[in-house]
C-alpha cells in the first residue's frame, strides 16, 4: 500500500447481526489492523485481555475520557462503557495501515463527525425473526434484554442511511466477500489515490 493514505473502516450493526464474525473474516487482508476497544464490562471466560477488548474500571474509563484519549465512546444499553483509543488511529497512520473499527451506532456517528472520510459499513440481519433467533441461541440474555436489543435494532436499522454501505448478513460467505470487496475497492477510490497518482505522473516527467 506504499504511497496511499491509510483509511478508517467502521463496521457496526445491531447486536446479533454477525458483525464480529465478518470483521474476523477480514483477517488475512494485507495492510489492515484492527482496533481494540476499551470497556468497563466484565471479561467473559472465553476472552483474553487486549485481544478484543481492553477491560478497565469505570474510574479509569472516566479518566481517559477527561484526558481526551478516546476517538469515540458511548454507554451501551445504559450499562457498560465502550471506547476507541485515539492512539490506535495514530499508530495505524504512522504504520501506513488501514484501521478497522468494530463499534456501535453511537460511536460510528462520532467517528464520522471527526473523520468524515472514514468508510462506514452497516451490517443487518435478514429479518427481525432471524435476529431474535440468533440472540436466543447465544443464551446470554433474558427475555427482557432480548426485547430491548430488538427494539434498539429497529431504531438502528431505521438510520442505516447514515452509512456508506449496507450488507445484509443472510449468507455468511457472501456477506464476508462483500465486506472484503468494500475494503479492497476503497483503496482504489480516486480521492484517496491523488498523491500516488502524482508520484506516478512525476515518474513520467510530470504533466
Describe this structure in words.
- This protein has about 210 residues and is of the alpha/beta class.
- The protein has one domain (about 10-200): Rossmann fold (3-Layer(aba) Sandwich).
- The chain contains eight helices and nine strands.
- The mean pLDDT is about 90.
Question: Which helices and strands appear, and what pairs or packs with what?
Answer:
Blueprint: E1 8-12, H1 19-24, E2 32-34, E3 37-39, E4 53-55, H2 58-66, E5 70-76, E6 80-85, H3 86-95, E7 98-102, H4 105-114, E8 119-124, H5 128-138, H6 143-158, E9 165-168, H7 172-186, H8 194-203
Parallel strand pairs: 1-7, 1-8, 2-7, 3-4, 8-9
Antiparallel strand pairs: 3-6, 5-6
Question: Brief overview, please?
Answer:
With 207 residues, the chain is an alpha/beta fold. It contains eight helices and nine strands.
The global form is globular
Uncertain segments are none
Work out the radius of gyration: 18 Å
* Largest sheet descriptor: 5 strands, parallel
Spatial sequence of strands, sheet with the most strands: 2-7-1-8-9
Distance between the termini: 24 Å
Key structural traits:
single chain; 207 residues; alpha/beta; Rossmann fold; 5-stranded parallel sheet; 8 helices; globular
Amino acid at each position: 500500500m506504499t504511497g496511499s493514505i491509510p483509511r478508517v473502516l467502521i463496521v457496526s450493526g445491531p447486536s446479533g447481526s454477525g458483525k464480529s464474525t465478518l470483521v474476523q473474516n477480514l483477517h488475512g487482508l494485507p495492510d489492515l489492523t484492527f482496533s481494540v476497544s476499551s470497556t468497563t464490562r466484565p471479561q467473559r471466560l472465553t476472552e483474553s485481555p487486549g485481544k478484543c477488548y481492553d477491560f478497565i474500571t469505570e474510574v479509569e474509563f472516566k479518566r481517559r475520557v477527561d484526558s481526551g484519549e478516546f476517538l469515540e465512546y458511548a454507554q451501551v444499553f445504559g450499562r457498560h462503557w465502550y471506547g476507541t483509543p485515539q492512539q490506535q488511529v495514530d499508530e495505524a497512520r504512522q504504520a501506513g495501515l488501514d484501521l478497522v473499527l468494530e463499534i456501535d451506532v453511537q460511536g460510528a456517528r462520532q467517528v464520522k463527525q471527526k473523520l468524515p472520510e472514514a468508510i462506514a459499513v452497516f451490517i443487518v440481519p435478514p429479518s427481525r425473526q432471524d435476529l431474535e433467533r440468533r440472540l436466543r441461541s447465544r443464551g446470554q440474555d433474558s427475555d427482557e434484554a432480548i426485547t430491548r436489543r430488538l427494539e434498539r435494532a429497529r431504531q438502528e436499522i431505521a438510520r442505516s442511511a447514515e452509512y456508506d454501505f449496507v450488507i445484509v448478513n443472510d449468507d455468511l460467505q457472501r456477506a464476508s466477500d462483500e465486506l472484503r470487496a468494500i475494503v479492497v475497492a476503497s483503496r482504489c477510490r480516486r480521492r484517496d489515490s491523488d498523491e500516488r497518482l502524482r508520484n506516478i505522473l512525476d515518474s513520467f516527467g510530470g504533466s
